[in-house]
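Q: Predict the bound structure with magnesium ion.
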Amino acid sequence: MTDFTEEELALDPRFADQFERGFRPACKLYLISPPAIDAAFTDRLAAALDGGEVAAFQLRLKGIDDHAIARAAEPLQKLCADREVAFIVNDSVALAKRLGADGVHLGQSDGDPREARSILGPSAQIGVTCHDSRHLAMEAGEAGADYVAFGAFYPTTTKETRHRPEPSILSWWVTLFELPCVAIGGITAENAAPLVAAGADFLAVSSAVWSHADGPGAGVAAFAPLLATKG
Ligand SMILES: Cc1ncc(COP(=O)(O)OP(=O)(O)O)c(N)n1
Ligand SMILES: Cc1nc(C(=O)O)sc1CCOP(=O)(O)O
Ligand SMILES: [Mg+2]
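A: Predicted complex:
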């Protein structure tokens, strides 16, 4: 092992487990909205939040314009504020600014995190999609992101995905960096354990909650045993 620097060894997934992870808080739930919602959705979100601890809620509505998203956002944002759940807007820095959201999630084609920071200010939570790429994640960290998101770890019907990282990308990340990492894509209470064990700081989940047979509260509650401890 002496021929390599610590960083080189930790970058090699075969040796990642030999490196100490600094203290990290227990993994938390990051709830993603369904891509389309109706007037009853505020009650469904309230039911989800009644089910257990949720750290953040991302409003991810697809196929409608910013004005329509802004109208839909109002009661949801208020509910999140009342429950101390961070309210994150997907895709649009301008909309996040207009709503006074707690943050924005940016895909690789959704804009530059540095520009988002200059518009939203130092307290905004800025997240960046990094697919299965260590390089994109390090770039996002350098650009001032507050979290990096890896995915899709499992098949999902919520979104077409082209990347399938291994859980070891999470253990590699948490071994080297303090910046939180989010795991996303097809995550359920039944398949999430390896992601928590690998060190995910957040599980980002949509259909496992909104399509849970016993309702969204049960969907959130199902994750509680996984989130109580960290691997
Ligand atoms: C937490 C989190 N991670 C990844 C994504 C995906 O963002 P993006 O690649 O921009 O794709 P869309 O969600 O915009 O379809 C996300 N939204 N949230
Ligand atoms: C929005 C999103 N982004 C992904 C990525 O891989 O970047 S996967 C995904 C869908 C998440 O929803 P579900 O929990 O229903 O699979
Ligand atoms: Mg996007």
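A: The longest strand covers residues 28-32.
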